[in-house]
From TrEMBL:
Top-level taxon of the source organism: Bacteria
Gene3D superfamilies for this protein: lambda repressor-like DNA-binding domains
Protein name: HTH cro/C1-type domain-containing protein
């Protein structure tokens, strides 16, 4: 692991991330490396709305290492989205896979574009039956599109 040292705090990089505080997290973001960032992400995943996650959110507002900040922000957002976010991601992937506009996909599965938008954003979670229908429809449309493209060659 890259040598990382904390200054002016009682914690060390070997201590649990929960003991690092704002200064330790900022130092790890700015001067740490992948193993340090993985430890931060693991802590955030364990408690997406806990102390480390809240401190990390503050750190990300002031840290200057753009790539690291972007990656940690995505991980924090993903951890906070939880299952609802995972379902929203599956809905978004189904729409993309279908090769239809969101409005056309909504009509195809029998819902309104505005309702589909709430599923895609994670504001509302579709039933398991509707999610299954979305994924099956997307797969069928993608297969039809592929067969059409092969025939046109």
């Amino acid at each position: 692991m890259t040598m990382l040292r904390f200054r002016n705090i009682d914690a060390t990089p070997d201590d649990p991330v929960e003991d690092w505080g704002f200064e330790g997290l900022l130092t790890a973001v700015e001067r740490g490396s992948l193993p340090h960032w993985r430890r931060i992400v693991s802590s955030v995943r364990r408690d997406p709305f806990g102390k480390v996650a809240a401190e990390l959110e503050e750190v990300l507002g002031v840290a200057e290492r753009e790539g690291v900040v972007d990656s940690l922000r995505r991980n924090l957002d993903r951890a906070r989205a939880g299952e609802r976010g995972a379902v929203a991601e599956r809905v978004r992937r189904a729409v993309v896979r279908s090769d239809l506009t969101a409005a056309a996909f909504a009509r195809t599965i029998g819902t309104s574009p505005s309702r589909l938008s709430t599923y895609m954003s994670g504001q509302v979670t579709p039933s398991a039956a509707l999610l299954t229908k979305m994924e099956r429809t997307a797969d069928d449309l993608a297969l039809e599109s592929y067969v059409r493209s092969v025939r046109e060659r």
